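Response to reviewer comment R2.3. The reviewers asked that we include at least one raw input/output pair. We reproduce the pair for Thiosulfate/3-mercaptopyruvate sulfurtransferase here without editing.
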Amino acid sequence: MTEDIVVSVDWLAAHLDEVRVVDVRDAWEFDGIGHVPGAVNVPFDRFRSSEGDAGMLPGAERWKTLMEEAGIDSDDRLVAYDDEHGVFAARFLVTAMLYGHRDVHLLDGDFSAWNRGHETTSDAPSTPSATYDVREPEASPLVDFEDVEAALDTDATIVDTREPEEYAEGHLPGAVQLDWRELVDSETRGLKPDAELESILTERGITPDRRVILYCNTARRISHTYVVLKHLGYERVDFYEGSLTEWRERGGPLETEADA
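Raw output as returned:
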């Protein structure tokens, strides 16, 4: 079994009976287009909340209910996918990690990559009874407003994973711009090769020897970048769940591209 947080479609095909596959697309896609055999459907909007325990998280009780309804136990090995290069699936996995799930993996290449060479089905999956225990994560990457504010005066690399136009309109002082889509290949729909990923990151000064703090608008896009950095072996990666939504609400300083 793999220890990598990212797994290939061929790896998943060889281990379907050993993992719990989670499809986070909308229900009409899951039912109408088809899905990976045995996958359960937990649509993105069901584990997303603007009024949860920590920013955009759904809340521990809601998460527990969602997992038990999907037949997922606390110790299941999860592999999640979507059809958007993995950004929504990554959000599911980061959410699971923050609620103490310890064995999570992203399908490299999303549903389209699977569909090119592997069987799909429209059959309803079996959902066995499950008991899900929300736990404290072994080590939480979450940082809050005060942590990020203090980091502005350190050598931490603060990374804005939004599009260049959004960055230009206003970003955290000193933040590096890295659109999360720069890390995916439009043809394979998965991650670019590791050497290319490392080159892109190094060019931006995002290196494993420095503390990295990620933010976007609502913590969806940074979920994908977080998974990529963990895949590459980065150890000090912090996750600003509140992102710019909270930063603006609390009056945090911003600079425009012209200011920078």
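The chain has two domains: 6-117, 142-249. The two ends are 46 Å apart (CA to CA). Further pairs are available on request from the corresponding author.
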